[in-house]
Predict the structure.
Amino acid sequence: AAADPGDSTQRSGGKPRGRRHPDQFTSELWTELNSLAGCSESEDGQKGAKGGAPEVSLEEALMRLAEFLSLQLGAEESCGTPSDPGKPGEVPPLLTVTSQLLALLAWTRSPRGRQVLLQGTQPACPVQPSNLDGSLSQEESSSQPTPILDEVPGDETQEHQPPQLEEEQRAWQRLEQLILGQLEELRQQLEQQEEELSRLRLGVGVTDSEKRVQHLTLENEVLKQSLSLAQDLLLRWGPGPLARAQQEEAGALLELQDQLQEAQDTTEALRAQLGVQEMQLQGLRGALQQLQQETEQNCRQELQQVHGQLAGLRARMASLRQGCGDLRGLVSTFTQSCQGSLSEAQGQVSWALGALSAGGARTQLSEGQQGPPTGCAGRLLELKGNIRVLCRVRPAEGIPSSLVSMEPGQGGTITTCYRGRQHRFRLDWVFPPDASQEEVFRQLEPAVLSCLQGYSVCIFTYGQTGTGKTYSMEGPPEDPGIAPRALQLLFREMGTGGHHHVTLSMVEIYNEAVRDLLATGPPERLVVRQGPAGQGGIQVTGLTHWDVPNLETLHQMLSLGRSNRATAATVMNQHSSRSHALVTLTLRAASPSCAQGITGTLHLVDLAGSERVWKAGVASTLQRDPNGARRLREAQSINRSLLALGGVMAALRARRPHVPFRDSQLTRLLQPALGAGTTAVLLLQISTRTEDLGETICSLKFAQRVGQVELGPARRRRAPRSGTPSSLSTDTPLTGTSCTPTPSPGSPPSPGPNSCSGLTLEPPGDLPP
Ligand SMILES: Nc1ncnc2c1ncn2[C@@H]1O[C@H](COP(=O)(O)OP(=O)(O)OP(=O)(O)O)[C@@H](O)[C@H]1O
């Protein structure tokens, strides 16, 4: 159409073509198109003539295609660079390719092409591809087969088909290669043209308006891109910038809130962990503290155990030492005893010889009866010579406590359970609550009788207030206690022969003041002092010694002394003895033929109650009782003196060189009774009441300590040959006032201070000041 514009106009049906058709096509292409069109028309025309169907011919199709292409090219060129019509090779590559495609299409619609296609072989291109400029190369021209435009008969075609097919295949391959090459070139040219187009659009050959249009186009494109970007952003980020900002802020705020919440959650979690760790730490601290306490407690317990074991070892060691010392003492004592017995036997022999020489056989017999005892009992008493501890349990007023149990009898025990700890005390003898006064005295009888043999015996009762000390010592008239029974026994043993001079003294220690309970006048405070050097013992200035001719007089005097004794009502005992009472009975052989008679002494001591001050209720009555202060002072004094007695016992037990007898008036007066060679019997009175348990244990401990005291073997005393009352043995206690025997044994003093007129009391003129 480009080569023949007139035909093209005619064939295009007078329709206006594009503004810029290509001015020329390659002649070969056009020829081939025409030939194809002719073939098609020859076939299709016959069909059309025969059938008369209004089919579009290939030419028409080509024309339409060309028109379409021209329109496309025009549209393309309107935006691109105007081509130069006089310039060969400026044919748009698209047209070239299109022409090739059209040629191929025409061939496929040709009979040969159809035949080839029907035979299933590859089609052979009947057209020769052309270069862009429409000229074939020499080589290709020479090898280019001649197009077969006429229809070949079937048989001949069958015969010549193989070589033709080969040629067509080769042509087709070349065409294909050519098309591929042209397509590649087309692509390159397109790229070049697009580059050039863009360059030209921005540069040369473009008017200001076009440039403006181009710029505007570019700006438009940029704006479009911006718009699409904005739309994308809008779609992505929200409806508007402000809202987005708010939303961003809200988002940021939410994010911050989330972070804050997260931080708070983290803080809470950390706090919870911290709390747990603090609790764990607290628990560990508590466990550590508990462990420390347990460790400390265990250490203390172990330390206490070690201390206890150490104390036990020390006590055992001291006991062993003491036992060793006792054995030594026994050995030496036995030797001394043997010597003493020998000398005593010599004395008895000489005494008997003297009696015989005096010619009194009856007298000899009588004096022989008064002689020193013989036999195992006396020897045992001499060898033992220490303190015996007896314990008497007071009958319970109510139900007896189960916390105190006992094994009565000789070597009996008292077992207490106090504050979870058990204490067991072994004593020389334990009297059960139902023991009678007679049973008690029976155990004291040998000691009492030994006084007649010249021994010094001290029997004292010790214990808490109300436990029966006075009861045991004095006893009621219908059931007399130790003192009446002892005196009765002694007088019975002495008989009525008048061979003994019996003197009695009775003092009390009240608030550390020594008072004579048998004084004729008002009781005065006596002075206790040490005896003259070399004589030993003590002297009590102003103390009266009464000669006791018979038992009746003795009882009367004892009643007198008892009535003078200080008593008071305490919470624990309505008739509590608030003083220590000491009764001393001196038995001196009074035979004129016995110049060197023996002198025995019996000390009966009723100690005051050993209860604690607060327990006596004295302190509690200080505010109400006007005599409360006095009661308190009494209790303090009693306790102080008993404490001094304990100190003396401890020193004696430990065999210390110094025994603190001077610590109290009680120990001072008891010094002769607790001296070497004396016999002492402690009668401990205890209560089984639960509330008295502590005091009972204290008393038992004291008694146990006393029982460990060694006083050495008992020794008998001898009176000087002069035999005057004032020349008593220096060991004799309470030697202060000389006494004159009553003129007649049958005239005892009547009880009471005013009834002493019958007695001749010698004033203490011969006593040292
Ligand atoms: N074995 C006993 N049998 C019967 N009654 C007893 C016995 N022991 C003590 N009693 C009675 O208990 C009471 C108190 O006794 P007692 O006065 O002898 O005690 P005490 O230890 O001397 O007191 P204090 O130390 O205060 O003088 C008395 O009424 C006494 O009769």
Q: What stands out?
A: The two ends are 187 Å apart (CA to CA). The chain has 18 helices and 18 strands. The mean pLDDT is 68.
